[in-house]
Amino acid sequence: PPTQIMSVSRGKSSALQATEYDMQMMLACEVHVGTKNCESAMAKYTTGKRSDGINVLNLGRTWEKLMLAARIIAAVENPKDVVVISSRPYGQRSVLKFGTYTGCSYIAGRFTPGTFTNQIQNNYMEPRLLIVTDPRGDYQPMKEASYANIPVIALCDTDSPLPFVDVAIPCNNKGKHSIALIYWLLAREVLRLRQSISRRQPWEVKPDLFLYRDPEEIAKDEQLKGEAEGVITNVVVANDFQTEEGVFAEEYEDEENVEDEEEENDDFFD
To answer: Number of H helices and number of E strands within the chain?
Structure first.
């Protein structure tokens, strides 16, 4: 039932409560849609199953964990000490935008083993906090974080394993719309806690900027844009040519009229 999907524990500050618009966006992006499999540790975040066997997540618990994760991130003095990672293609643009707006470090794509443990590497990092998009796909950085005693925040689906995870944000971590919205909500709350943006005004950055885009679609859009610009250029050139042709025609007619007048004058004097 919708009341169970969006149930939020009472007694919390009204400023931290989810608005109706936030819940509508989460439902539209299918943040609550899990998988058919469910780990025992994730069962407490579910509200039941659909008729097709898909587990349904409680968006109220998702919101609570988002607020908790945002407080943890905002408590880190240097944003560069927070590293956000996504090996999934759907989350790479999201972590890049999250790092851009919050000032956190990000790793989009393949994680080089030893980044957190091997000090002789050129890209060696010593983060104070790690954020991962998928505990399965990002298992290597989580394992290295456990060696260095680095707390981990993870976007967890119903089938996600929770070893090495300190704060689990229950959500759909397989859909591109869900991942983009979760990172957008997290970035917005972090900026609000830092007082970089106001809670009374909507954030000017849209969730679409965090959304994964297929390279083929980008290439197709650029091709269509180039063709449109080419058509506009051809039309402008054609108009300029017609204008110049008209000017030349007028000048030619003026020259013929002058020659005719000169011939008439010569005949008159003769």
So the answer is: 7, 7
Closest CA to 173 of 69, 57, 5, 3: 57
Provide the strand spans (E) within 163-206: 167-170
Question: What are the backbone angles phi and psi of residue 131, rounded to the nearest 5°?
Answer: -120, 125
Which pLDDT score, from 0 to 100, does residue 219 have?
66
CA atoms within 13 A on the CB side of 189: 24
The 3-state DSSP class for residue 85 equals strand
The tokens describing 163, both together, are: 């070893």
Q: What is the CA radius of gyration of the chain?
A: 31
107 sits in which H/E element: strand 105-108
Rounded to an integer, what is the distance from CA 9 to the centroid of its chain?
Answer: 29
Is-above-0.85 flag for pTM?
no
Q: Is the CB of residue 46 less than 8 Å from the CB of residue 55? A: yes
- Condensed to tens digits (0 to 9), the pLDDT of residues 55-108 reads 999 999 999 999 999 999 999 999 999 999 999 899 999 999 999 999 999 999
Comparing CA positions, the residue from 19, 29, 214, 194 lying closest to residue 101 is 194
pLDDT in tens, 184-214: 999 999 999 999 998 888 899 998 889 888 7
In the sheet that holds 129-132, the strands lie side by side as 105-108, 82-86, 129-132, 152-156, 167-170
Contact 127, 166 (CB under 8 A): no
Residue 126, both tokens: 């010593």
Average pLDDT of the residues in 136-146: 93
